[in-house]
């Protein structure tokens, strides 16, 4: 999520302008939009086991627009569902070209896609359009959306599993209600929010408590049949601490920045 945005574009009128430009880009087949890949590596070997597809938008005049602002612009003009559909089709088409036994591809499902009920039908349509093997896919549901509407999220998760797709809980530990979410939805993977793992590499009492908390979360996820992925790993110290906590996989700039990869 390393796109930048001029401060003026945060104004409401400019957000509308951004949304209109994004709608034009989508109408033109996604002009200026792309998916960068960031490796997700096994903690033990650091070999890539998957890649996360990250949305990037290059505005023709303003340059790179942050993913957060891109999503807000899409919602401002009612094009959130269309943007989700573009991401799914592009990502699934990409994964369809990889070896079937190769790394999995993880994509994000937006908050609006979950609460509106559009996520599962869009995924089904994208699978049919691309012919991708769903067993090579993982869809990440943000914890904020899941806790906001647990009933809707439970339905989306069940529908995605019925399609043969693995589901992951993204940003775990970033909001309240996390334990209930893990109890109610059988996620295949739990991605630890950077706020949960921040400072685990330090040598002080606070860091010791952080490491104990991360280890407890990992143990809980394992007991529920889920693997754990730590996000935003940027230092060797973090990597060592997360390995000691028995985290299964790591993702972050230390292992690879988002870009073009060919598994």
Automatic annotation (TrEMBL):
Domain EAL as annotated: residue spans: 15-263
Designated name of the protein: EAL domain-containing protein
Pfam families cross-referenced by the UniProt entry: EAL
Membrane spanning stretches: none
Taxonomic path: Bacteria, Pseudomonadati, Pseudomonadota, Alphaproteobacteria, Acetobacterales
Gene3D superfamilies: EAL domain (3.20.20.450)
Entry superkingdom: Bacteria
């Amino acid at each position: 999520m390393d796109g930048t945005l001029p401060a003026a574009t945060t104004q409401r009128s400019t957000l509308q302008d951004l949304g209109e430009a994004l709608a034009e880009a989508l109408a033109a087949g996604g002009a200026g939009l792309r998916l960068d890949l960031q490796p997700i590596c096994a903690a033990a070997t650091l070999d890539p086991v998957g890649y996360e597809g990250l949305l990037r938008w290059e505005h023709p005049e303003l340059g790179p627009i942050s993913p957060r602002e891109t999503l807000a612009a899409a919602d401002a003009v009612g094009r959130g569902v269309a943007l989700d559909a573009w991401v799914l089709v592009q990502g699934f088409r990409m994964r369809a070209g990889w070896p079937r036994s190769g790394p999995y591809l993880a994509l994000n499902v937006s908050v609006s896609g979950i609460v509106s009920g559009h996520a599962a039908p869009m995924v089904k349509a994208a699978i049919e359009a691309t012919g991708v093997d769903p067993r090579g896919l993982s869809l990440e549901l943000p914890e904020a959306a899941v806790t906001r509407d647990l009933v809707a999220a439970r339905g989306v998760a069940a529908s995605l599993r019925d399609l043969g797709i693995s589901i992951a809980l993204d940003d775990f530990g970033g909001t309240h209600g996390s334990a209930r979410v893990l109890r109610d939805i059988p996620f295949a993977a739990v991605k630890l929010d950077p706020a949960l793992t921040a400072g685990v590499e330090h040598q002080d009492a606070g860091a010791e408590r952080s490491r104990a908390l991360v280890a407890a979360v990992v143990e809980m996820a394992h007991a529920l049949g889920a693997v754990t992925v730590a996000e935003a790993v940027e230092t060797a110290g973090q990597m060592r601490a997360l390995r000691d906590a028995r985290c299964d996989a790591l993702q972050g700039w230390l292992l690879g920045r988002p870009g073009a990869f060919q598994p």
